[in-house]
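Problem: given the chain below (319 residues), write out its structure.
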Amino acid sequence: MSPTLRGALTALVAFGIYATHDVIIKSLGARYSSFQIVFFVGLFSFPLLTLLLMRDKTDGTLIPRHPWWSALRGLTSVGSGVFAFFAFSQLPLAQTYAILFATPLIITLLSIPVLGEKVGLRRGVAVVVGLAGVMIVLRPGSAPLAVGHAAALAAACCGAISSVIVRKIGAEERSAVLMLYPMMLQVLLMGLLMPWFYTPMSAQDLGMAAVVAVFSLIAGLLTIVAYRTASAVVVAPMQYSQLIWAVFYGWMFFNESVDLMTGIGAVVIVGSGIYIVLREGTPDVSQNTPVLQNRSRLDTGPVLRSGLWPWRKGPRGGQ
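Solution.
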């Protein structure tokens, strides 16, 4: 089996696990607040992540070199998780994914002021088309917009900010710093809210929260393996396979169906996202880590969904 095929298949398995992980989140969201779910998932993730980081032999301390950027990234990572978990509890799985997949588009826009990257005409048009796809999914004026839609958009924005910060400081910060600080903030901030939002959980539901933590870690590690095995332009688009899982799981477990406009909007968003990552994978366009690689989920979300290892930034490109 070639490295390209092996990387693609590994990514498909990883994103399939993530989709299953989100089904459990949606199920828990019917009984508990997103704050509580994020808290317990973080609590179960912390020892697993600590064991993983014990293998990090990089010299240095756990004091961040960029404290303010690290603090902002921690807050946006936690926010992304809270908003995404809430959106999953309120919206159909496929619709939630369609909105969350706007994250790479927002990353591309933010890379201009934050990273000083030049976005040329082609990528600019792709962003506009992708955002039009988001509007097709939301259909403002023709369908009632709920708080779940706002939460999904907020999750996409927070995830984009977190990813851009990783691209900005990742080459200078230790992986342990990038991972531990958001996790600590997650547990501390959500723990402070528990007196107001805690609902007693059964042993089964606690077990489900633990499964979410384990699934997130396994899928994150598989994603890293995939990116080390094959190029980003092969691995990154595999994330969109989650839409297929979302349609299947939504129909199987939640009696959900995908309406025509959501389907059309999702196709537009996915198409523009794939185009952007293909353009960023072109050496003369951008030397930065492709935007979709940042959404591999160990950096943007309560379980630290991607950006495990520092990104290396090079010269900025255009188009």
